[in-house]
Amino acid sequence: MPTPKQMEKLAASLGGKAIGARPLGPQDEMPDEYWQAVLNDAYVGNRPLGQPSAGQRLSEIPQHVLRVSCRRCERILEIQKADAIRLYGQQASRREVGQRLLDNTCQNRTGRHEEDGCWPAFEPI
């Protein structure tokens, strides 16, 4: 592991800033390099292929099987897309379908609205 002095020397030889520079604080402006990196990010505005969003309509989902799991009780439910469309309609969102499936079979009932029910996690298949 290089010493701090060696790292400063290496940074200076590469044209970078010395390590001894003041770090950015919460009130400081973000450097232009940061914003350029954000704009150049390949995933900005696009989600990776094969990962449907929870707000996607059933008619837009390419998979034939939908999987939803509960983060609370760790149950996993699967339903075929055709059955989900038949039960909930083409315009239903993946989130609505998943929440209804989990609510219909929920086993964690406490009586308090804030704590009742399952917590859906939408998984790609």
Automatic annotation (TrEMBL):
<protein>
    <submittedName>
        <fullName>Uncharacterized protein</fullName>
    </submittedName>
</protein>
